[in-house]
Structures are given as structure tokens and as C-alpha cells.
Design a protein that fits this description.
InterPro entries: SID1_TM_fam. This protein has helices at about 230-275, 310-315, 335-340, 345-355, 370-410, 430-435, 440-465, 480-500, 510-530, 535-555, 560-585, 600-615, 620-645, 650-675, 680-700, 715, 730-750, and strands at about 5-10, 20-25, 30-35, 35-40, 45-50, 50-55, 75, 85-95, 105-110, 115-120, 125-130, 140-145, 165, 170-175, 185-190, 220-230, 280, 290. With about 775 residues, the chain is α+β, with helices and mostly antiparallel strands.
Length: about 775
């Protein structure tokens, strides 16, 4: 047991010109202070304390002294021309050394700091120092310093040595044995003279009174408990759990692929015995079927999914991919219109006529050359790789610099961790927050493998195909799927980078690819039945860049500046109207080029007037109108909500807009699919259910806020909570795990949703 000595002094003099000077000389150091003791605050305010209490640095025993003896010299002096009364009291501290798993209560003030000694037990390599207080203020600082004299225990020098945190009600510091060669350290507690560093305000009572004397009015009661941290075996268990958990997805995918392979082999064998030599293999599905009449499983009496002889004969007249058979049915075009349409020399000259038909089918919007369209969508893949490389490299360099600064300075207020569940490894302060992002990378790569398999099967089928096969099912363009897989992997990489040192300056690392994932999913859903008119990769990524810029501006200006919310709401509403007009008329309004339509908003008003006033009973494109009305109401509601409430977390606000629009469009797509007598196969049905369940669980953990860089570091630490999984992962780590799985299932929904249409002709597949 180590004993320490504490010196208490008090002087009734408030004369700042003639303070009483105290100098304490010890074996290896000198400690000095004055009474009144002066602290300086914000705007050069001063706070004077007449009572001062300091703990002296414990001395090492020498051969000339017994272990319990300490030789101390105390010098008292003043330059005052008159006598000054003072009080001096020296006491021995009975509870100077802290014990493991034992709470210790004490009080401290700005002029009476406290520090205690802790020695590592033999079987403990890492400990967590938990400090709690019932009162948020006064603001305090907790510091861990090596056994070196003097100890820095005042407000102006506590940051000079060791590791430190500001604190209101809670603080936690993880300390490792390897960082202290002597296997012991001091835990220092300092009370700050002002509270602004912890989020508080300057007390109004001191305005205009710069020399007010404060004695024990800023006393704070604290409780410190030092508990052992996790052992190395827990790190190994956590890593095995993370990798094996997501490797099970690989195993499940292999099983599903094997079952499909066996099923397709038996199916193709049976079909060879039943179907004549004119049969062909439907691309991408692995199902052998005939180019002669096909009957889909539709309600009795319905012609949906059936190919009559006239349509078949019409298809045989097509001699190249560029010349397609007439699209549509008896309900949307006459024979004369079809013959006139076939004589048109270029697709570009007739798309204005086709896309304004009341009833559109997939064949009407998949007329462009398949190879050209596929190359167009592959640009999404190559562009996102370029973006990822140029985005990730400076991000990695920046977060490495942040972590280095934290390790060198010891300032743990730079990064907003959940300090009650921050497990260091090497130079990383919170390895668990980084490890939990492995799911995004592993499942993103698995999704790329699944898409690659489908792409290879599709290409093999195309090499073996008859020319008529081009008219079956949803056009297979995999560029957007590849881009989605890369985006999921990059979300894991950048989220891990963000959690190296999460703070106000690098929040966008964690959200940038979330915006891109939501946007790519919407584009893919729209591309499914509009392959010829989807946005180009350049315009799509440019739009994402604008969104990310708005997100950064929102965090900087969105807290207090009303003008930003007005401008953003106007941009949001106008963008919704412009996009709605483009969707309603199938991209026939252009914003650029020689045929630009500068009156797009005027035409939007005319659309509302024509479809909602003149013929309110039945708009020309009823389904699209319903979707766009609901979508605009949702987006306008978001704009009004932001304008009125001005949410502090602007990044999550933007992400919420994207997610709500994606969910709205997906729900509309599934409803319209079922309305059109299309089926949901078992795999997409399973993926839809899994997506809903996993997203619900993930969002529950997402809203368990464990820290917030929108507040001060001390206020953020009030939200810290212990680990909940394996003693290693916290709520946010569970969010990482579940959100990775939820995104993976969401991608599979988009990939498999229309597998039931692989045996249906495109002129029978409706567009919505």
C-alpha cells in the first residue's frame, strides 16, 4: 500500500497584488502555487480561490529513510507590506491506491484536484476506468498519467501529459499494461473553472465581475471504479464470429446454386424428351422451352403470358436485333399503325410516338441494341470503381492521421467512441467498431459473385440461342448490379474508416456510399422495365455528388441558419417536380441539348391542369400519376418537416429521404407486379421477408444512440453504454452486422424479383 500526503492551505486575504506563495520541496520535485489561486476562463475571465488543496507526489523510499517516512519542506512567503494570516494543514491519505472492482467516492474542485494510484494485478493486461457523477456540471477532466513527478493536476496543465477526457456525468478510459512499463499509473481528476468545454454556458452572475472569488461552490462528487477489460481470447472469438457468420451466407449461396443446377439438369433432360428440335434455352434462367406457343400460369381466360400464332409469325419476320417485331397488343395499336411503325427507318424517330401510348409493354422500351445498352450500363461499374479509389485513398490517409494525433497527444475528445465498449488493438482505439464492418465487404463480394454467375450463364445462353430468345423476359443488363456490389463493399470500407475516429469532420465517409446505394437501387428498379430510357452513369453520379455536397452544407449551416433550410426545401420540391415530369412522360422532356425543354416546370403545371382538372376522373397514365402524387406528397412532407423542425442530424435526414423514396417505389413495383398477374417465386419471396425482418431489427439497434458528434465530447459520453454481444460488440456494431445482411437481401430482391418473367415475351410484359 502506497501512502501519499495532501497539503491544505487557506488564506483570508483577497489581495491579488500580494498573494501568499507556497513552495513544497520533495525528494524529486518542487510544487508551488499561490493563494488566492487564479484560474482564467473564456474571454479572459478570472476566478480566484482562497482555499487550495494539493496531493504531493509519493516519494520512493531510500536507504536513509524508512518506507513510511517522507521528508517534505514547505516554504511560505509573501511580498505584502503587512501581515497576512494563513492556515496550513498536512494530512496523510488513507485511500490513495485504487483497487480493482471496488468503487471509490470522493469530491474535487478547481482548486482542490485529486489523483490516485493504480497498480495492475498480475493476471490483468487491460482495465477500464469508469467515472460517474450524479451532476453534469461543473465540467471535469479525467486524465491517466505515468508515474512521473510532478503530476499535472490543474486546469491549465492537465493536458500536458498522458491520456485525458472531458466529462459531465460519465467517462471511461481503457488502459493497457503495455503502455506503462512500471505497470502502474495515476488517475487524475480536475474540475474546470467554466463549463463551456462540456457544453454548458458561462454563468450569467459573473458577467461584469471579473474578480469574483469562488471557493467551494464548484465542488463535484465523483465515483471511480476500475474493472478488468476483456482478455485476448475474446478478440479471437469476436473475429471468428464475424467471419464465420458471414461465411455462412457463402455456404447458403452455394447450396442454393447447387439445388438450381440439379433442378435445371433434370428439367432440361425432361424437356429434351418432350420438345422438338426447335427448342431454345431462355437466357439467364437455365430453363429449356420452345419458341412456339408458351402458356404462363395466369388466371383462366387471361391472355397474359401467352404467345399466339400472329405474334410468333410477326417475330419470325425479324432478321436482326435492330429490327424488332411490332410491339403492343390489340388494345394499344392497330394493324395499320404497326405497319407504318415498321417502315420507320430509325428508332429515335418513332420513340416519341411509342412512349406516349396509354398502355406500354416492355418491348416498347427495349428497342435499342442490346450490346450498346449493356455497354452503357457497364459504365456504372467502371465509374464507381474510379470514384471508390479516388475517394478511399485520401480518406484512409486522413483517418490514419487522426488516429496518430489521438495516440500522440492523448486527447480522447477528438474521437466520438462508445468508450464503455471501445476495445483497442494495435494503434486502433476501437477495433470492434471496425471489425463489425467486415459484413459489408464480405456480402458485397458475395453479391458480385452471384451477379457474375448470372452474367456468365446469360452469356452462355446467348451464345447458344435462337434470335427469338431476345424477346423473352426482362433484358439482362448487369452493370448496375456490379455497381451495387462495389458500393456495398465500399460502404464497409468507408464506414470502417469513419469509425477509426468518428467526429464532425469525417461523418460524410460513413454516409456517402449509403446515398449511392439507395440511388443505385432506385435506378435499377426503374431500369428493369425502362431499359432504354434510364439515366446515364454520368448524370446519376453527378446527382449523387450534388446530394453529398448538400449533406456537407447541411451539417455546417443546417443547425441555426434558416436561409439554408429555405433554399434546400425549394431545391427539394423543384427537383421532385422535375423528376416527376420526366417519369410521367417517359423521359421525353429534356433539360439540355438542341431540343431542350426550358419550360419543363410550366409543362409540369400543364400536366397537373390537364390530368387533374380537365379530366380529373381518369388521367392519361393512371398508375404513374398515383405513384408520382404519393411520391411528391412524401417529399413535400419531408421538405416541410425540415423547414419547421430543422433536424440536427442532417445527414440522416437526407438518407431518410432516399430510403423512403426507395421503399415507396419498391412497394409500388411489387403491387403493380401482382396486379398484372405476375408471380413472386419462392426465392424473391424469401428475400422480401428476410429483408423486412432484418431491416426492422437493424433499425432498432441503429436508433440506440451511443454517441453523437453533434454534441460536445463530454455530452456524447453520457450516451455511452456497455457491450451487448460477446462482451465485445455494442449496439452500433450489431447495426453494422444486421444492416449488411439487410442490404444483401435487398439486393437479392432486385436481382430475383422478375425471374418469373424469363419465359414471357416482352410484348406481354407491362411497363409501370
Amino acid at each position: 500500500q502506497v501512502d501519499a500526503v495532501r497539503v491544505y492551505v487557506n488564506s483570508s486575504s483577497e489581495n491579488l497584488r500580494y498573494p501568499v506563495l507556497f513552495v513544497v520541496r520533495q525528494q524529486k520535485g518542487v510544487l508551488s502555487w499561490q493563494v488566492p489561486l487564479i484560474f482564467r476562463g473564456l474571454y479572459q475571465r478570472t476566478y480566484n480561490y482562497q482555499e487550495v488543496s494539493r496531493t504531493l507526489c509519493p516519494s520512493e523510499p531510500t536507504p536513509e529513510t524508512r518506507p513510511s517516512d517522507q521528508i517534505i519542506f514547505v516554504d511560505v512567503a509573501s511580498m505584502a507590506p503587512f501581515n497576512i494570516a494563513y492556515e496550513l494543514l498536512v494530512t496523510r491519505l488513507k485511500n490513495f491506491q485504487l483497487e480493482t472492482n471496488r468503487a471509490f467516492n470522493f469530491t474535487a474542485s478547481p482548486s482542490q484536484p485529486q489523483y490516485f494510484l493504480y497498480k495492475f494485478p498480475q493476471d490483468v493486461d487491460s482495465v477500464i476506468i469508469n467515472v460517474v457523477s450524479d451532476a453534469a456540471y461543473p465540467c471535469s477532466v479525467v486524465s491517466v498519467q505515468d508515474i512521473v513527478c510532478p503530476v499535472y493536476d490543474l486546469d491549465h496543465n492537465v493536458e500536458f501529459n498522458g491520456v485525458y477526457q472531458s466529462m459531465t456525468k460519465q467517462a471511461a478510459i481503457t488502459v493497457q499494461r503495455k503502455d506503462f512499463p512500471g505497470e502502474q499509473f495515476f488517475v487524475v481528476f480536475v474540475i474546470k473553472p467554466e463549463d463551456y468545454a462540456c457544453g454548458g454556458s458561462v454563468p450569467s452572475s459573473i458577467h461584469g465581475n471579473a474578480n469574483r472569488t469562488w471557493n467551494l461552490q464548484r465542488t463535484k462528487s465523483l465515483q471511480v471504479t476500475i474493472v478488468p477489460s476483456i482478455k485476448k481470447s475474446v478478440y479471437v472469438q469476436a473475429m471468428f464470429f464475424s467471419f464465420l457468420g458471414f461465411l455462412s451466407f457463402y455456404l447458403g449461396s452455394v447450396v442454393v446454386a447447387f439445388v438450381h443446377y440439379i433442378r435445371d439438369v433434370f428439367w432440361s433432360t425432361d424437356m429434351k424428351l418432350m420438345v422438338p428440335l426447335g427448342s431454345v434455352c431462355i437466357a439467364g434462367s437455365g430453363i429449356m422451352t420452345s419458341s412456339h406457343p408458351i402458356s404462363a400460369s395466369t388466371p383462366e381466360g387471361s391472355s397474359y403470358g401467352a404467345i399466339d400464332e400472329s405474334s410468333s409469325s410477326g417475330g419470325r419476320q425479324m432478321s436482326s436485333p435492330e429490327r424488332r417485331p411490332p410491339a403492343g397488343s390489340d388494345t394499344d395499336s392497330s394493324v395499320e399503325e404497326e405497319s407504318d411503325f415498321d417502315t420507320m427507318p430509325e428508332i429515335e424517330s418513332d420513340k416519341n410516338i411509342i412512349r406516349t401510348k396509354v398502355f406500354l409493354y416492355l418491348s416498347d422500351l427495349s428497342r435499342k441494341d442490346r450490346r450498346i445498352v449493356s455497354k452503357k450500363y457497364k459504365i456504372y461499374f467502371w465509374n464507381i470503381i474510379t470514384i471508390a479509389v479516388f475517394y478511399a485513398l485520401p480518406v484512409i490517409q486522413l483517418v490514419i492521421t487522426y488516429q496518430t494525433v489521438v495516440n500522440v497527444t492523448g486527447n480522447q475528445d477528438i474521437c466520438y467512441y462508445n468508450f464503455l465498449c471501445a476495445h483497442p488493438l494495435g494503434v486502433l482505439s476501437a477495433f470492434n467498431n471496425i471489425l463489425s464492418n467486415v459484413g459489408h465487404m464480405m456480402l458485397g463480394f458475395l453479391f458480385l459473385l452471384i451477379v457474375l454467375r448470372r452474367d456468365i450463364l446469360h452469356r452462355r445462353a446467348m451464345e447458344m440461342k435462337d434470335i427469338y430468345t431476345l424477346d423473352y423476359g426482362i433484358p439482362k443488363h448487369f452493370g448496375l448490379f456490379y455497381a451495387m456490389g462495389i458500393a456495398l463493399m465500399m460502404e464497409g470500407v468507408l464506414s470502417a474508416c469513419y469509425h477509426v475516429c468518428p467526429n464532425y469532420s469525417n461523418f460524410q465517409f460513413d454516409t456517402s456510399f449509403m446515398y449511392m446505394i439507395a440511388g443505385l437501387c432506385m435506378l435499377k428498379l426503374y431500369q428493369t422495365r425502362h431499359p432504354d430510357i434510364n439515366a446515364s452513369a454520368y448524370s446519376a453520379y453527378a446527382s449523387f455528388a450534388v446530394v453529398i455536397c448538400l449533406a456537407v452544407l447541411g451539417v455546417v449551416f443546417g443547425k441555426n441558419d434558416m436561409w439554408f433550410w429555405v433554399v434546400f426545401s425549394i431545391i427539394h420540391v423543384l427537383a421532385s417536380l422535375a423528376l416527376s415530369t420526366q417519369i410521367y412522360y417517359m423521359g421525353r422532356f429534356k433539360m439540355d441539348g438542341p431540343d431542350s425543354d426550358l419550360g419543363i416546370f410550366r409543362r409540369a403545371v400543364m400536366v397537373l391542369y390537364t390530368d387533374c382538372i380537365q379530366q380529373c376522373s381518369r388521367p392519361m397514365y393512371m398508375d404513374r400519376m398515383v405513384l408520382l402524387i404519393v411520391g411528391n406528397l412524401v417529399n413535400w412532407s419531408f421538405a416541410i418537416f425540415g423547414l419547421v423542425y430543422r433536424p440536427r442530424d442532417f445527414a440522416s435526414y437526407i438518407l431518410g429521404i432516399f430510403i423512403c423514396n426507395l421503399l415507396l417505389y419498391l412497394a409500388f413495383y411489387i403491387i403493380m407486379k401482382l396486379r398484372s398477374s405476375e408471380k413472386l417465386l419462392p426465392i424473391p419471396m424469401f428475400c422480401i421477408v428476410a429483408t423486412a425482418v432484418v431491416w426492422a431489427a437493424a433499425l432498432y439497434f441503429f436508433f440506440q444512440t451511443l454517441s453523437s458528434w453533434e454534441e460536445t465530447p463530454a455530452e456524447s459520453r453520457e450516451k455511452n453504454r456497455p457491450c451487448i454481444l460477446l462482451g465485445f460488440f455494442d449496439d452500433h456494431d450489431v447495426w453494422h452486422f444486421l444492416s449488411a445482411a439487410a442490404l444483401f437481401f435487398s439486393f437479392l430482391v432486385l436481382l430475383t424479383l422478375d425471374d418469373d418473367l424469363d419465359t414471357v415475351r416482352r410484348d406481354k410484359i407491362p411497363v409501370f
